[in-house]
Amino acid sequence: MDLMEKNLDLVEIQKLEGHTDRVWSVAWNPVSSQADGVSPILASCSGDNTVRIWEQSSLSRFWTCKTVLEETHTRTVRSCAWSPSGQLLATASFDGTTGIWKNYGSEFDCISTLEGHENEVKSVSWNASGSHLATCSRDKSVWIWEVLEGNEYDCAAVLTGHTQDVKMVQWHPTMDVLFSCSYDNTIKVWWSEDDDGEYQCVQTLGESNNGHSSTVWSISFNAAGDKMVTCSDDLTLKIWGTDIARMQSGEDYAPWIHLCTLSGYHDRTIYSAHWSRDDIIASGAGDNAIRLFVDSKDDSVDGPSYNLLLKKNKAHENDVNSVQWSPGEGNRLLASASDDGMVKIWQLATKP
């Protein structure tokens, strides 16, 4: 049955309280959140310089804070990301460093600290195989780190090209193609022609090619990896597409093209957009609201279009900085983080 025809609601399951400052980002552990019989785990990071690890009880379904990662970062932790194995958590901080934490089951240890950016690190992302890590900073650069044996990390590349603060880095879900977005209003695509080659900027998506007209805050991909959503201070979400088969065949780089723009749904900066495994886009913004969108399935000559599935006003008492769908199939859990210091767990469910 079409999602648009269902009477759906975004139901607040639980507020996760504990951070003493704004919460910038949330990240679901990719392994625990998908395995049957294993409790989902969520990380959140904050202006209070800490990361909190939350776990849902398999019996009560109640979420509790299992541990607090502190005393490593001396300033705001802006971004956190789990490695594909779920064993490592990377944390990007305004103190200019990126921490690598290892999950030992009942506790986490910081096993490595990556230094090199001149100032605030804004975002961190692992590639699909977990062999590389990307970071970006207010220093306008993007760094690629190679994961070596013995908890060592080697800077494999420093990518310059953005003219302003880089807000987010995101690896493609299936290929070693890296994306970055910036205060300079652009999205840049970084690609290496061969495994050992140097990463080059192969495409810049800017206002001249139907891109954003203000700061781009976030990038997310659909499960197939052939579509991307970006969101911006210009109050729009944009959907982009590529010829994924051509890219995966290794023939050459297939450019991303603008498919459509979603506008008029938020009236303040859209800080976060995330695409679920079952093709629902969530957005969170400075208007304290969360919106959900789905493909309208009426591909006209103008290309695909997306419909508003649901709007949740006053989702938080302040800016919504991050929205992230659980990677688990079919459970439709969404986590959100806000300037109000809260993390919330939501479920997309049919109204009774």
From TrEMBL:
PROSITE patterns xref list: WD_REPEATS_1, WD_REPEATS_2, WD_REPEATS_REGION
GO cellular component term, pick one: cytosolic [4Fe-4S] assembly targeting complex
Any one Gene Ontology BP term: iron-sulfur cluster assembly
Keyword Kinase: no
Protein transport among keywords: no
InterPro entries in the record: CIAO1/Cia1, WD40_repeat_CS, WD40_rpt
CDD domains: WD40
Annotated WD repeat ranges: 16-55, 70-102, 114-147, 159-190, 209-240, 313-352
Similarity-based family: Belongs to the WD repeat CIA1 family.
Name under which the protein is recorded: Probable cytosolic iron-sulfur protein assembly protein CIAO1 homolog
UniProt source species: Arabidopsis suecica (Swedish thale-cress)
